[in-house]
Structure of Ribonuclease Z:
Amino acid sequence: MSVRDLVVLGSASAVPTKARNHNGYLLRWDGQGLLFDPGEGTQRQMVRAGVSAHDLTWLCVTHFHGDHCLGVPGVVQRIARDGVSHRVDAAFPASGAEYWERLRHAAVFRDTDVIRARPVSGERADLDTGGAPFTLTARRLSHPVEAYGYRLEEPDGVTMLPAELDARGVRGPLVGRLQADGAVTAPDGRTVTLEECSVRRPGQKFAFVMDTRLCDGVRELADGADMLVIESTFLDEDAALAEEYGHLTAGQAGRVAADGGVRRLVLTHFSERYREEDEHRFVEQAADAFSGDIVLVHDLDRIEMPARRRG
């Protein structure tokens, strides 16, 4: 059974709290596992969440501030220790390659050769997903150090219409040939096309936006996303601090989601300055601009992708 969901391994910002670990987000997508921004403690959070190193096929680091990458050594060493045999691609800003190497080889361990470095550079980078059923794009953001957001996009497909197939006598192996070739000859000699017997099924889209000010990259990543995971480090009254440190407020996250036609807005990366009783205010400020589904995460939450859009 295919699974498409987000496992939240940590949701704090620079300083963890008793309730929130440093960052860590595992997107499970039909057997693929994309681990975004493994902060300190991610390996233990994976154990608590019931996920393993064998579930990982990608490590995606947005930038090299510690709360987004200090879990890399433990995750890498767990991949090696557990004998993961499939390839694990590691995407990160090329300008931080020195930090990647330090983290990758931070301690003595029996190394593994399955991890493949995939440094990204420029305003936009399209990553080779090695035949996975989606594209993965990195887009430059606006932060005091070079940072990238990521967007996963599934190609559009089709949904077959049983009544239309039956009316044309297309059954059994002919259905598969119709899907593969776009047209088949029905038993009565008629040519039947795929367009006659199907409707477009829009591919799903997922966007991951961490530490950044508002910029074109944020908007492009969010555009049309079924799920947008986005930092909302500050409340709106602290917008000046957000701008100074290169972050977003809850209200800005809501406006990004509204402007981009996002379906599910996932708020995370909360500053330790706020208390638990302030949490509802993040949702309220985002909701001032965005009327769709808003999820404020807690560690170890599992958030499902929304149901598919209809064509």
